[in-house]
Amino acid sequence: MGLGLSIEELKAIKRYYEKLGRNPTDVELQSIAQVWSEHCFHKTFKGIVKLPDGSYVENIFKKYIAKVVEELKPPWCISVFEDNAGIVEFEDGYGIAVKVETHNHPSAIEPFGGAATGVGGVIRDVLGVWAKPIACLDVLCFGPLNTPYEKLPLGVKHSRYLFKGVVAGVGHYGNNVGIPTVCGAIYFDEGYLGNVVVYCGCVGVLPLSCYVKNAKPGDFIVLAGGRTGRDGIHGVTFASAELSEESEKVSRPAVQIPNPIEEEKLIRAIIRVRDEKLGSAITDLGGGGISCAVNETAHRFGCGAVVELSRVPLKDPEMRPWEIWLSESQERMLLIVPGENLERILEIFDEEDVEATPIGRLTEGHFVKVYYHGFLIADLDLDFLFNPPKAVRYAEYSENEVEEIFDAPHDINDVLLRLLSSPNIASKEAVIRTYDHEVKGITALKPLHGFRGGPNDAVVLKPIPSSWKGLVIACGIKPSYGKISPYWMAASCIDEAIRNSVAVGGRRWALLDNFTWGNPERADRMGALLKAAEACYDVAKDFEAPFISGKDSLYNESPLGPVTPTLLITAISIVPDVRKVISVDLKQPGNSLYVLGVTKRELGGSEYLRLLGVNGGKVPRVYVKDAKRLYDKLIAAIDAGCVVACHDVSDGGLAVTLAEMCLASGFGVRVNLSRVLRDDDVNRDDVVLFSESNSRLIVEVKRDRISDFEGIMRGCCFSQVGEVVDDGKLTVMGLKGDVIVKLDVDVLWDVWRSSLKL
Fold first, then answer.
1. Residue 373 designated active-site
2. Would the annotation count 99 as a binding residue?
3. Are 153 and 561 in contact (CB under 8 A)?
């Protein structure tokens, strides 16, 4: 039956039905399997983790993720971890809804369809809180594109095939549904050869007065959107298991079929229903289909429900009842509608050419009764359904940091050029240009910027036509750090996401966490996951940045082993005026360049050591109090008009950051490394240039505002290291005063743009 249940869970079901004195029906068993799946119930994060010393941690979600917002209690958080998407206050009665999901397993089987339906699903998550979707983001992780085919075992698709298919799927859905894809990242690593990672996100805007969730017994259950078919059946159980060489054959039907045109019509209809305030609740049909949507909605509002499956519009009239109940066919929403509004809602859907059908009603009590042509095929007790046995996991952890040993390079020019052409640093323009990032006309700061299109640290949207206030979207992802220290990897992801927001002027940060991990039933994987979760609490709390939404994807294993432990942190923040945001491109020769923050000997997981083929090293730490003070002062300097360009120091260190600022503008820079603030043990040019220490940025300051800038930044670590020049060259003087880098910006440009092609 493809239930994916554990022995303990099967025993609990057996005991329950023995008390009832009957056997479960197939529909009941399938319903239980959907709700109890890792994908839907997140039982690892809600379970018990036992440690080697005999102690245990219970519910790491509450202890490390949700606890941040519970302790901070920010008044601008409207809905957190209780609905399809997180909602924060924006201004003038409007809120911003945001959600990020993974679609890893489907994309590994069918990359185009898996990625496209990932986009469609997360759009509906935002629509499921009555928000109008206004922008999408995507973060994608693949194995090396040059991997020899003979290296791949049976059942594992080549990374280039996955890369092309996933990018095409993301672009196809976003472009056709008419929502801009504005933000993202692409990362390559050996750990993704057998486990492609596809993060899809969506942001929406809603009048807070329209955020209505007050369903009650007697309200109608209305199914709206595309027809129900056999695609997507057992999607959640498939997503809660490891990939194998049999996955292609067994699980292909679990991959849904995308139809962005149907979704575009559905969005229009839902927003009309919202604006007329006709619905009492809404949710999307994602994992588990009608089954999970009805059960979760009834449970949330303390109701029962009665459903007649024969009323569901079908693609295939031969579908069996359990298939109808579980199907994850796309472009469908479930609305709860008071009886007096039913006729009007059906009129709206008809006018928008969207099928909408009442399939049942909410009832008193706590049972969901499912009928098919009048025959009772399931009688589900929601108290039992939403209280599964607690999962028990075992965690072990050992540090992997070892001192790196390597010689200084003879030619730093060559190293920099090789870094700029390396997959994780090279231009992603070939991908970005396939996405429409300007449809809707609200993208104030785009992913590429300047004379030649350098990479901005974040994007800025103007969501409200009558307001200049901006919404900032930024990401942080550091997979290579997770191989060495999952704690500092997670800390670095949070710092990077916030740092990217600050670089354009963003403040009041809210975070989303998305874990992609291996099998949590293996103690080493679980131990690493626990460490990463601990860092999420420690760092986010001190940054005063609450988590408002998130999602985990576990069991990412293949015949090649576990996925690289990956955490994506998405940060949303605000800027007072989109006309004053800061971009990456240098503005004026003669302006001064400053490095903010301290450079340390922290090369573990760096792109520099990857290039050299050197393992080990210390992963960058995060000193949150120092970082937050620095970021607050930088925002003040930006507001004062002192800063005209900014770029965060990340992959490739100071050298790559300087190069990217030059690429965006065409101007050159002249920099002296001896002026860079650094620890005493940082005494080599290559370490200063390529260290990836956190909480650092490079800013361009107007020449006539230097004293103002330094006055604002007093009390923080910063240093004036050089200036913008008009000679079209990147020139760097080393610690001893000799020129160690001198490269034409045109050469940097050619190398940076030439390596990554679709």
1. no
2. yes
3. no
